[in-house]
Structure formats: C-alpha cells, structure tokens
Amino acid sequence: MENEFFISQINSLRLSKNAVIMAHYYQIPEIQDIADFVGDSLALAQEAEKTTADIIVLCGVHFMGETAKILNPQKKVIIPDANAGCSLAESCPAHEFKKFIKQYPDYKVVTYVNTTAAVKALSDITVTSTNAKKIIESLPQDEKIIFGPDKNLGDYINSQTGRQMLLWDGACHVHEQFSLEKLLKLKSQFPNAEIIAHPECKKPVLMVADFIGSTAALLNYSAKSKKNTFIVATESGILHQMQKKSPDKTFIPVPPDDSTCACNECNFMRLNTLKKLYECLRTEKPEIIIDEAIRAKAVKPIKRMLKMSAKLIK
Ligand code: 13P
Ligand code: SF4
Q1: Residues in the chain with pLDDT values less than 50
Q2: What are the pocket residues of ligand 2 if the criterion is a CB atom closer than 6 Å to any ligand atom?
C-alpha cells in the first residue's frame, strides 16, 4: 500500500520534472523495476552522457552520481541517499593516490570508475569491469601502467593480458568476503551448475569460476548459457534481473564467510529505498555538487573511456 503511493508519486514527479531514473543492478528490485534505465557502471555512464532529461536521479552509489554529474555539469544530478558510498572508492583517498602516482611519473594512470571525482581528476583513463581488459590491451605493449583502486580486478587483468601493471591496494568489502569453502560446497550439491563471478572477487574464487565478467556480462552470459543453474559470486541484487531474463533458470548467490551477516549485499547500495527515491525527486536533494576545477579534469579520463569503449566494445 505504502509502495503504491510512492510509485504513483514517483511516476508523476518524473514526468512533471522531466527527470530520468537510472539504477544499478545492485539496487533493490522495487527500484530496478521503476527505473527508466537499469545497467552496469559503464551503461549508466553511457546513458548519462546522452540523456536529454533535466534531472538525473542516480540510484546506485555516490561515485555513480558523480560520474553522471561530471558528464552533465548543467544538469541537476540527485541521489536518494547521500550516505551511499563505496568501500572500494574509499580505499583510495585522492591525497594518498596522488603521492603514490608521483613516484612513477612515466606511468599511465588507469582507474576503475569506482573512485571519487578527485581520483578521476588524477587519472589518464577510467575503466569499468566491462571494458577494462580491452582498454588495457589497446594501450601500447611497452606502456607502463598504474592501476587502481581494485587490486583483484587489476591482478585479474594482469593475468589475462600479460601486463605487469602496478596495483593500488584497494578492494570491495562485498566481493572480498565470498566464501570459497561454501562456494565449493554449493558446487558439489549442484555439480551441473556454472560458477559465474565478478572480477572484484579474490583470486581463489576467480580460479574456480566458469565465467568472469561485469554485472552486465554475467547477466547476458546466464541468459545465453545452455546451463540451467548458476552459482553467482557478486552482489545478490543482480539476481533480480537474471531471474527476470531467465525465469526458468535457477540462480544461487554465494554466501559470505560470515553466515551471521547478509554481506553478499552491498550495504551502501541497499540504503536506497522507494521512499527515499520519492523524497529526493520531490525535494531535488541530495544533489551532487562537484568543484568545477576537479570536474574539468575528471571529465577527460571518463570521455576517453567512453570513446574507447564505443570503438572496442561491439
Ligand atoms: P559493474 O556494474 O560495472 O560490473 O560494477 C560492479 C560494482 O561494483 C558496482 O559498484
Ligand atoms: Fe562499492 Fe563494492 Fe558496493 Fe560495488 S559492491 S558499490 S564496489 S562497496
């Protein structure tokens, strides 16, 4: 009943304000279902770049809102909860990253989009898990590269490309805590299941995975695969779209090491609710504000990524 009220209010507010609602795959199902667009980090950036809406409501985490704002300085970008941060972005404070890259002046700085605007402003190119491998491969073989902040993704790309990128020591608290032991137990219970994993997971989990990819890649893979059961090692919000795309298939989320918590859910992503989405559309707050000097620098690596992606990802 309460949800019906929020849904009808959200629908009329987005129309009257010419607002577009974009949501990441890790959002709660109710938000994914009401969004105009649901996607992975790359698709959200691509959609933000081309939107004609006056207001962008980014239902995800703070850095996603920042990316939309960096690309749209003239538009209002709002988010349902200003506290929806990201442990991976937090693992890379700009002042420390600046000191680190200063030691390697002849290195290209490639950063995952899970970073603050200030870190993007220090970067040459940003990447997402959808395009990271292709973008790194497209750089000259002898290019020296610093990659941050996700050491697991960086290590995975090094192993796939033969590069020896210098890695920042950062990680996502959700993807780091999947239990290999419980994953293998699930595999023995469901021997025909395929293990699919996000590259933010630790190496032992990636080593037993049948397929590794971004949220969008995992979703498409599970829809196309001939298998019927999937053990999914990423934030469990993605299961909503997987189940929608493949209603006859079975998706099993990998449990965390600590069985007393629901920590295969990102506590930041889960801060957003329909009520907060309604409130933020009504009040047009909280709004993403970025210092113009930082924004002007941060837009360059993002634009570079979008241009390279258009060429490299068909
Ligand atoms: P992708 O949606 O790009 O795969 O990223 C996952 C993620 O960690 C978002 O926070
Ligand atoms: Fe950040 Fe991890 Fe949450 Fe993604 S799942 S938003 S990387 S903390």
Answers
A1: none
A2: 61, 86-88, 114, 172-174, 235, 266, 268-269
